[in-house]
Amino acid sequence: MKKKIGIISGMGTRAGLFFVNKLIDKIDAPRDQDFPEFILHNNSSIPDRTLAIVFGEESPEFELLRSIKMMRDLKVDYILLTCITSYHFIDKLSENLRKNILDPVDLTINILRQKGYKRIGLMATTGTLKSRLFHRKCQDMELITLNEHEQEEFLMKSIYMDGGLKSSKISEKAYYLFTRAFNTLKNDDVEVIVGGCTEVQIGYANMKTTIPYLDTMSVLADEVIKKMNLKKINNEQKANTLII
Fold first, then answer.
1. Which CA distances in Å does 210 have to 39, 123, 133, 175, 235?
2. N or C terminus of the chain with fewer C-beta within 10 Å?
3. By CB neighbour count within 10 A (0-12 exposed, 13-18 middle, 19+ buried), where does 158 fall?
């Protein structure tokens, strides 16, 4: 019997669908029946994770648990969330509730260790940075982030502004601000840049760069392929692959 994957999206919606397309682009599937069985819950009712962490606004835990329970009821084999910041709240759950939830943070850090990177540029939401989701798990590496002004005025604005990377229609200004944030981090003598927010994959797909880049959503897609025993395609496009 085919294994089933449960995908919890809506954080944001575009990022979740971007992940699904990335996963599909990675699979060698000539026929309908060669694709994985997955259930997507676009739970756009989940409160903003960064606002909860940084400003103490409404917690996303209730809605996250609602999605997880839905996936359990549908008897999926694995669950993943297409929002990195949400894993701060997943880490707080009991071991039983965390069972079979794929964690892109741990998977990404393992790859960085295997490759021997020591000075890493991390592009992530302010919520992820404040929660130290990456920092507390890779104390043997140096994580370089944008300063407070660059973080808020370049990266966060590119994600959350009207016409930002979370929007249904992304503006040229959002892409410009994202590129500025990316290049600012790149110029800080980092060895590799980690896309530690699911919107980073959207901004990155619109630009060209030569620095090694590791995308958490690509790492997660590769793990799904491995867990589901799927055949991986060889000639992946830039936006859908790991560049390490």
1. 36, 16, 27, 18, 19
2. N
3. buried
Instruction: Check pLDDT > 50 for residue 154.
Output: yes
Burial of 95 (0-12, 13-18, 19+ CB in 10 A): exposed
Q: What integer is the mean pLDDT of 179-186?
A: 98
Tell me how far CA of residue 35 lies from CA of 74, 82, 194, 223, in angstroms.
Answer: 19, 19, 28, 15
Q: What is the largest CA-CA distance in the chain?
A: 52
pLDDT value at position 235? 59
- DSSP H or E stretch at residue 90: helix 87-90
User: Residue 239: its pLDDT value, please?
Assistant: 37
> What are the beta bridge partners of residue 39?
6
CA distance 174 to 242: 23
Per-residue pLDDT tens over the stretch 93-135: 999 999 999 999 999 999 999 999 999 999 999 999 999 999 9
pTM score of the predicted model: 0.93
Percent of the chain whose pLDDT exceeds 70: 96
HEC string for 7-60? EEECCCHHHHHHHHHHHHHHECCCCHHHCCEEEEEECCCCCCHHHHHHHCCCCC
Give the integer Cα–Cα distance in Å for 136 and 115: 19
User: How far is the C-alpha of 125 from the C-alpha of 154, rounded, in Å?
Assistant: 11
